[in-house]
Design a protein that fits this description.
By secondary structure, the chain is of the alpha+beta class. The chain is built from four helices and six strands. Strands 1, 2, 3, 4, 5 and 6 form a six-stranded mixed β-sheet that branches. It is globular. Keywords: Signal.
Length: 155
């Protein structure tokens, strides 16, 4: 039993020390809806049959790792496109729980090279042009499944 606890502690300590750096903000349902309203975005599918939930510190570490892994997979599978660098984005996490009690995290990312822009989720929904500055994914945190990555097409 002591071996198992020591191994578990070591894994947690290792994952904390090698955590991926991600610029993110966790949004409540109300704040996400408010930001979508500001952008006059009417698709509310992410809220259908979902409950609001929270994320622990450990879940945030795992989520950041899964996001990084998802982006790396995207970069490998799309060599014709410019690689996405996770450090160049601000991410908005909307944690939800479905009727099976699984945590699904809706993630919207905005490139952060213009500091005065892209500080709110509403900016994501005001896009009317192409470019890879806007990416989104959904990650099943309960099953630790990588998310698909969707970007705007080229302008």
């Amino acid at each position: 039993m002591k071996k198992i606890l020591g191994t578990l502690f070591g894994l947690i300590l290792f994952s904390c020390s090698s955590a991926v750096e991600v610029n993110y903000e966790v949004l409540t349902f109300e704040l996400a809806k408010e930001q979508m309203n500001l952008a006059e975005y009417s698709n509310r599918k992410i809220f259908e049959n979902k409950q609001e939930t929270s994320l622990s510190s450990f879940e945030l570490i795992v989520l950041n790792e899964l996001l990084d892994s998802s982006i790396n997979t995207y970069n490998k599978n799309h060599p014709d496109f410019k690689n996405i660098d996770i450090k160049g984005y601000n991410f908005f996490y909307i944690p939800t729980k479905n009727d099976k009690n699984e945590k699904w995290i809706f993630i919207y990312g905005l490139c952060s090279y213009e500091p005065e822009l892209n500080r709110t989720l509403s900016q994501f929904f005001l896009v009317d042009d192409g470019g890879s500055c806007y990416i989104q994914t959904v990650i099943n945190l309960t099953k630790n499944v990588e998310g698909w990555i969707a970007i705007n097409s080229r302008a």
